[in-house]
Structures are given as C-alpha cells and as structure tokens.
Design goal:
By secondary structure, the protein is mainly alpha-helical. The protein has seven helices and three strands, in the order αααβααββαα. It has one domain: Winged helix-like DNA-binding domain superfamily/Winged helix DNA-binding domain (Arc Repressor Mutant, subunit A, Orthogonal Bundle), CATH 1.10.10. The radius of gyration is 19 Å and the shape is elongated. The mean pLDDT is 91. InterPro entries: HTH_MarR-typ, MarR/SlyA-like, WH-like_DNA-bd_sf, WH_DNA-bd_sf.
Length: 145
Amino acid sequence: MGDLSKDINSEFPNDKIKALLNIMYTASWIQTKQNTFFKPFGISPQQYNILRILRGADEAISVQTIKDRMLERAPNATRLMDKLTNKNFIERVACASDRRVVHIKITHQGQELLSQIDTANRKDLLENLTLKEAAILSDLLDKIR
C-alpha cells in the first residue's frame, strides 16, 4: 500500500493538507493508469467517456448534453468528438428542428470498440478497498464537493 509521505518524501502541516494533496496525487495516478489502459485501443479516457455516454443514450444526443454528462469537464470536447468522428466511432446527425444544433450518435464501430474494452483485462484500481471502504470513500468524496 502507498504512503503519500514516503511517495513524495514530504511532511504536511496537517491532515487536511495531506488529504487534499493525496486526492490530487491519487487522481494523477489513476489518470496515468487509465491512459496506459486505453492506449492500445487508440483512444483517450476522455474519448472513452464520450463513447460511454453515447452508448447509454437511446438516440443521438446534442454536443451540450454530452458535455454536461462528462465525468471530466473537457473544454476540448468538440475536438475529442472530431477525433472520434475521424475514426468512425461516432457520427454527427443534423437536427431536423434546428439547423444550428448537431446531434451525435455512436456508430457500429464505436459499439464494437466498447465491446472490446468491456472484455479487456482491466486492472481494478480499487482492489485494495473492501466494498464498504469504497462506499465510505465515495461518500467522503461527495461530501467534499
């Protein structure tokens, strides 16, 4: 198990500062693990998030809806969607009632990619936690926000 004090060779003035820095350090650690996992699939974690959102939608949805549902609010969501369009994982659909609005839907290729990702051997990043500890952690993170 990790120990932030040893990992970054630092001492902290109090436990609140240590906890905040630990959240930031752990978020970076998770991001690195996610980037490594998704690299062989040719997408980023943010692009996966977009595909995941679209898979859960019953129909094509607006770019704004996708942005609102993203776990990580990416100011470059449109660019991420451009890359997914170029890879034929999503497609743009013109809105019949408003020409200014573009809807996005996942393609068959995008669905197939998600199926491959779903069956890949993904490491459980929370394997050191029990289900009860994971629930407590989740509640504490909600409390922070």
